[in-house]
Amino acid sequence: MSAGIELGSAAGGVPALMDLTELLATRLLVQGNSGSGKSHLLRRLLEQSAGLVQQVVIDPEGDFVTLGDAYGHVVVDAEASEAELQRIAARVRQHRVSVVLSLESLDAEDQMRAAASFLGGLFDADREFWYPALVVVDEAQLFAPAAAGEVSDEARRLSLGAMTNLMCRGRKRGLAGIIATQRLAKLAKNVAAEASNFLMGRTFLDIDMARAADLLGMDRRQAETFRDLERGHFVALGPAVSKRPLPIRIGPVQTSSRSGSPKLVPLPEPVPDARELIFTRGENEPVDFVPRPSPRPRASAPTDVLVQLANYRPAARPEIPEEPAMPPEEREAAMAAILAEILADSDAASCTTATLYQDFTVRCRIRRVGGALPSLPEFKRRLAVARAGVGPDVSSMPGWEEAEALAAGLPEDLAGLFLLVARAALEGAPCPTDRELAAAYGTSSAGRARRMLSYLEERGAIVLRRDLRGAPIIAIPALGAETRPGEPELGAGLKMRR
């Protein structure tokens, strides 16, 4: 099914269309200063696609709750507990209901925690409910900040992790992230970089104009044009809109924000008793002003924290019987199976080691793998071995312990690549293909993997050569072994000896 929605008009009054099917696969980033028309653009997009796809709106200011009256969106009150928000999000995916998560009643830290819980519930839904859905996040710099702010590190980590999952891994789960921000410089780069479609509005700061121009493939002189854009005018680029930068004017909307833009109104006529009006309590005014309670206690002063720690006494808790320890062989098999599942995901090649490690620890807790989990350095070693496809039959092979010792002396990111070559050499197997080399290095770029082979040769770890047919062969002098010739076209970018 293919569907095009009309965002507005381009030059000459030609309709500016967005391919909704393509948008679901490639994500969207909207940028513009306050007052540039970002919320108007998001509202237009939501209204035009309301009957075509499920919609989830993360709304920090309560601007989009009016969609409920016209299009049937359910407004979710974010003051619910984090666990309840996760359960609501799971039911949202199950029943394919369009919702608006209103965060206006919360402070900044609680907004981040609530958004993280809700996005986590959407992301962790069962596979049978992975229906396509637009996930619109307004003021995304609040939930994926580029730098630490006044909120706690824990809240920032949770929110940033949820936003990263949405933009990096949400596509496989049917979640198409649409994020809007006032400033690109305030938005985490790993979140912004995952978008393939861009709508850039008015901005004034040089750093934001330069980043916007860079994303759109424009030169520095053209970047100055972002200062002159009128409200509601954007420059679009991406596979869902246009293959070349396209200035468009966003069309009208049917609904409006509850607040709206402030407008000038005449001041009342001066009154002689103005002082008495503001210093005298009114008839219906409460005697004592009760400040609004904070939903989360603020951080105490360092001295108060020390006193609390000194006086703390843990409350007696009922003893909970520990689960029986998993046998070592079963534990190792479980961790190996989890690591294999992670690497089987096509997105694993584009994820950092830290992200894979976090996914590994979460899956281990879900499977109840007891005992101390591997540290990050140990996980990196296991990851390198797994990427090399090493099983019990290989680990018992003569010379393998020496190969692992050689890999330990190499940079961590090259260990998997070296072990793959060492395995082929010790087994007398053909030289690995470009795709196998790239997978062992943790990338999708065969050229990058070949450059790493050249680096290993410079370090004296391997020797690259070709036979008379031009087929590549990789030798490992320290092991006294070499691979059999591979395909002649393999390693076309490598300089090999004959």
Automatic annotation (TrEMBL):
This is ATP-binding protein. GO terms for molecular function: ATP binding. Residues 6-112 form the Helicase HerA central domain. Pfam families: DUF87. It comes from the Bacteria. Keywords: ATP-binding, Nucleotide-binding.
